[in-house]
């Protein structure tokens, strides 16, 4: 803490390998020149997931600069009050296999579970965790959006419904899992979902903004939080990269 540090966010294909090789060559060059002064000390993100967590500590969406031909991470939509501009997918060529959490709300899963599981299979999701749970009030509160929390009446209605019966929680795994699940669920208002696409899940199974059938993790950060919250004992997959990287 006695000296300042320089923090850089870099992007290119195979960024981790290329940067590690460049720093290795730079260090070797300094050693050949015999300079014994201050040595370059670096801390490099090891994976896209670690990069994601570290980037949001130092930067905001306005700090990033993109070129005309680069993948723009700044224009991503805001979902549930959380920006998606630092998704790990922005740092690697191709999608990563990640996990997300789907909670099927009381009353919805008991009569359409078979259809939901079938649709998950067709969308190439792998179920790596499943739990039947009665939500406590404090847990239900954590699933409510910040917009709902600003309206006391709406907040009470959402929490009352979430705690009214048993819910089914699924941990799902596939490439780009968080965004794919959000796209399948559609808007939280079933009427809006119906107007956009009648095949959206909330359009099919939801009846109101309160009883809209589903809760889905709205960002990578939220997915990690939800997995730790609902599946502290672990998952049934051989390895879950999302949780493994959280331990680094």
UniProtKB/TrEMBL annotation:
It comes from the Eukaryota. SUPFAM superfamilies: Nucleoside diphosphate kinase, NDK (SSF54919). It holds the Pfam family NDK. PROSITE patterns: NDPK_LIKE (PS51374). Residues 97-237 form the Nucleoside diphosphate kinase-like domain. Gene3D superfamilies: Nucleoside diphosphate kinase-like domain. Belongs to the NDK family. PANTHER family: DYNEIN AXONEMAL ASSEMBLY FACTOR 8, NME/NM23 FAMILY MEMBER 8. This is TXND3 protein. It comes from Centropus bengalensis (lesser coucal). The gene is Ciic3.
């Amino acid at each position: 803490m006695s000296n300042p540090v320089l923090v850089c966010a870099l992007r290119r294909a195979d960024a981790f390998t290329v940067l590690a090789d460049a720093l290795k060559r730079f260090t070797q060059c300094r050693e050949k020149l015999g300079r014994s002064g201050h040595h370059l000390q670096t801390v490099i993100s090891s994976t896209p997931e670690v990069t994601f967590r570290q980037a949001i500590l130092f930067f905001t969406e306005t700090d990033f600069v993109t070129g005309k031909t680069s993948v723009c991470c700044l224009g991503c939509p805001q979902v549930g009050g959380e920006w998606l501009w630092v998704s790990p997918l922005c740092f690697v060529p191709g999608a990563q296999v990640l996990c997300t959490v789907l909670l099927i709300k009381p009353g919805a899963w008991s009569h359409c579970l078979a259809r939901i599981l079938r649709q998950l299979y067709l969308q190439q999701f792998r179920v790596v965790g499943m739990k039947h749970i009665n939500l406590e009030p404090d847990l239900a509160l954590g699933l409510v959006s910040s917009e709902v929390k600003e309206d006391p009446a709406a907040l009470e209605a959402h929490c009352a419904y979430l705690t009214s019966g048993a819910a089914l929680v699924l941990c799902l795994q596939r490439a780009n899992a968080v965004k794919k699940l959000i796209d399948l669920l559609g808007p939280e208002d079933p009427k809006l979902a119906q107007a956009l696409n009648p095949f959206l899940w909330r359009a099919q199974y939801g009846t109101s903004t309160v009883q809209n059938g589903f809760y889905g993790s709205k960002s990578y950060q939220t997915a990690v939080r939800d997995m730790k919250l609902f599946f502290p004992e672990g998952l049934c997959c051989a390895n879950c990269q999302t949780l493994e990287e959280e331990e680094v």
